[in-house]
Write a structure and sequence with these properties.
Blueprint: E1 17-24, H1 29-43, H2 50-67, E2 72-79, E3 83-90, H3 105-112, H4 122-129, E4 132-137, E5 146-153
Antiparallel strand pairs: 1-2, 2-3, 3-5, 4-5
């Protein structure tokens, strides 16, 4: 098997480059997504974002692996000079409600996970590290897909 080379796909609407990785839903998926994102961030001169990005993508891919029956997990990375946005997608499943697709469940899940609990702090961690994050669906193009995304980078300076 040959090594995968990240290749740009459609243009990033924020400028920069966009990359996609499709992973089988296996226990190795979080590690592969982490390594993929690490390589992209080093190549795009964002070494200061690597640690937070690795942690966030690991949490989202792990959630897709552990809480859905999706056969494939998608990782889409958009990188420009100031920011990186990562979206993790799956075919949905029982976790859909936990990701807030039906309203305030996300806020409740984040607020109720205590520091001693083994599970339930992943999205709170993503929220604490990211400039922005959210959930969505695959829309008309990919009905039934669940998407969870986060953006890292330097905060905008407002005058």
């Amino acid at each position: 098997m040959s090594a995968a080379t990240p290749t740009p796909v459609q243009p990033n609407p924020l400028g920069g480059e966009s990359y996609r990785l499709t992973l089988p839903n296996t226990a190795a998926a979080p590690r592969i997504a982490r390594d993929f994102l690490t390589s992209l961030l080093h190549l795009s001169r964002h070494p200061g974002l690597v640690d937070d990005a690795r942690l966030c993508v690991t949490k989202l891919v792990t959630n897709a692996h552990c809480h859905t029956r999706t056969p494939l997990i998608g990782v889409h990375v958009a990188v420009n000079r100031k920011r990186v946005t990562v979206a993790v997608s799956d075919d949905g499943g029982p976790v859909r409600e936990a990701f807030g697709m039906l309203g305030t469940a996300t806020a409740t899940a984040i607020a109720t996970a205590g520091p001693e609990e083994e599970h339930g702090r992943g999205l709170a961690l993503v929220e604490s590290l990211a400039l922005a994050w959210g959930t969505g669906s695959g829309g008309e193009r990919h009905p039934g897909r669940t998407v969870v995304w986060f953006t890292l980078g330097r905060p905008e300076v407002t005058a």
